[in-house]
Amino acid sequence: MSSTRTLVSPAVLARPRGRAVYWTVFTGVVLLFALAFLFPVYWMVTGALKSPDEVARTPPTLVPEDWRLSGYTDAWDLMQLPTHLWNTVVQAAGAWLCQLVFCTAAAYALSKLKPVFGTVILGGILATLMVPAQALVVPKYLTVADLGLLNDPLAIWLPAVANAFNLYLLKRFFDQIPRDVLEAAEMDGAGRLRVLWSIVLPMSRPVLGVVSIFALVAVWQDFLWPLMVFSDTGKQPISVALVQLSQNIPLTVLIAAMVIASIPMVALFLVFQRHIIAGISAGSTKG
């Protein structure tokens, strides 16, 4: 019978003193890690509640001396956050939907339909991961300009479809779905699309959640590409607007705008964290 060696032996944990020391050290380490991750968030949120003089003070104050909500209200009005947040939502949602539809269809075809030269096609798709993203900016811009898609959300949606990493992630997950399940559905009269919609997609919810987060975050935090294709200030996403409109804006207002801009992504993660963790766990165990 094999035994697993651990840092703390079961004999030590069986003693009251050993358990007390173990849980004390464990709790301390967890608190330190939590503090390391949460303190920057606290510093940013409270920084917008301080006065401009207090933010620039040295040494800094840990707790605001005078709590002010004017930083958030001024950021909402002066930087036109509702307009730019809505622009970002439209661009991110469209890119997510297009990417999910086309990447899922391509991954399903490569995984289960086994097209001719499918391996070569997959190899070509994965080879694009070796090309630096900066090298593709100029060709993408010229293509979008030739199609007349500047200042149009399609300039964000269409390039987002070609995501080799998410396609490969979906294909790897689809490869683990038992072929017997699909064959049973086909024997019952289900077509290829029905199998994809009724069998494959419900079984792939964890990985679809992970791909969705990747797609949304990529568009939400992108700066260079939206800056190039949106010259109209009224159509720019929040990532570009924070830089373009930060001139002559108090530091507290800018910090407040950054806090507001980060709330949707944090809320999205908190809502779908169960699916994200399940997708990562499924990918690590099945891959």
From TrEMBL:
Keyword Aminoacyl-tRNA synthetase in record: no
Transmembrane segments: 20-43, 89-110, 117-142, 154-174, 195-220, 249-272
Occurrences of domain ABC transmembrane type-1 (ranges): 85-272
Subcellular location: Cell membrane
Pfam families associated with the record: BPD_transp_1
Protein name stated in the entry: Carbohydrate ABC transporter permease
The keyword Transcription regulation appears for this protein: no
Organism listed in the record: Streptomyces levis
Recorded family membership: Belongs to the binding-protein-dependent transport system permease family.
Keyword tags: Cell membrane, Membrane, Transmembrane, Transmembrane helix, Transport
Membrane topology: Multi-pass membrane protein
Gene3D superfamilies in alphabetical order: MetI-like
